[in-house]
Design a protein that fits this description.
Blueprint (H helix, E strand, L loop, with lengths): L14 E2 L2 H10 L5 E5 L7 H5 L5 E6 L2 H10 L1 H7 E3 L7 H4 L5 E5 L5 H10 L6 E7 H8 L9 H9 E9 L4 E2 L6 E8 L9 H13 L5 H9 L19 H15 L1
Length: about 260
């Protein structure tokens, strides 16, 4: 803790106190351009990001106590480029029209929402380096066939190359969480179009994992109907077996059958 700032459970806060890990996270961010740190807390990661002369750091912090502390600790930077507010409500296109990388020790209770917001702004977010619950990190980084592979895995892997960088133990936080954490790095891949109706792609992925223990046939028919009795070769598989490319193929097939 710093200067009496207490981590707030309602905000999912667990303040990082290990300087070595903070430095490793800061070093994992590639150089150049604007970087937005989500939830700087007491500035443990912020201080190392500010040492990077090859980036221009911004911050967004919802906790007023943390904002006040950061303005006292880093007055020149915080008064100019620390935004008090909710990242999930931020208009990234308006504030960073040229794009922005994202970094941070993400609050556990909104980590998935952060990634969904990144997806919505994927043309403006070339990279994300974030610390999340290990379970979330594994889920988004795992390839098809893993039991943890799911909706967020497919949607993120469609647009980003994902690296699981390292695991972080519970004891380096105040207060310590009940689970281990991990740092992941997402970098935009070369895909600009999936080659299918992208809104329908999301719907197909969500439908497939909505009943993940069932075969694709039953999961999709529950949402889209029986397709006139038509069958796709992937219908006998389960959702966690399918790659992004196979979901694209399935989406195009569904599109033909329902239009």
């Amino acid at each position: 803790m710093s200067r009496g700032i207490r981590a707030k459970k309602s905000l999912g806060q667990h303040f990082l106190n290990d300087l070595g890990i903070a430095r490793k996270i800061a070093e994992a961010v590639s150089g150049g351009g604007d970087v937005l740190e989500i939830g700087g807390g007491t500035g443990v990661l912020t201080q190392f990001l500010l040492e990077r002369e090859d980036i221009r750091l911004w911050g967004v912090e919802i906790d007023r106590e943390s904002v006040a502390y950061m303005k006292e600790r880093f007055p020149d930077w915080a008064n100019a480029r620390l935004i008090e507010g909710d990242f999930l409500k931020m208009n990234i296109r308006e504030r960073f029209p040229e794009g922005v990388k994202i970094a941070g020790n993400f609050p556990y209770n909104i980590s998935s929402q952060i990634f969904f917001k990144v997806l919505e702004n994927r043309d403006l977010v070339p990279e994300v380096v974030g610390m999340v619950q290990r379970e979330v990190a594994q889920r988004i980084a795992e390839p098809p066939g893993s039991r943890t592979y799911g909706i967020l895995s497919v949607l993120l892997q469609a647009w980003y190359d994902i690296e699981y960088l390292f695991t972080v133990s519970e004891g380096v936080f105040t207060p310590p969480p009940k689970v281990k954490s991990a740092v992941v790095r997402l970098r935009r891949n070369g895909v600009n179009e999936l080659g299918c109706d992208e809104a329908l792609f999301v719907k197909v992925v969500k439908a497939a994992f909505g009943q993940r223990r069932k075969m694709i046939r039953n999961a999709l028919r529950a949402v889209f109907g029986d397709f006139g009795g038509a069958e796709h070769p992937l219908f006998a598989d389960r959702a966690e077996k399918l790659s992004v490319a196979q979901f694209v193929e399935l989406t195009n097939w569904v599109n033909e059958k329902i239009t």
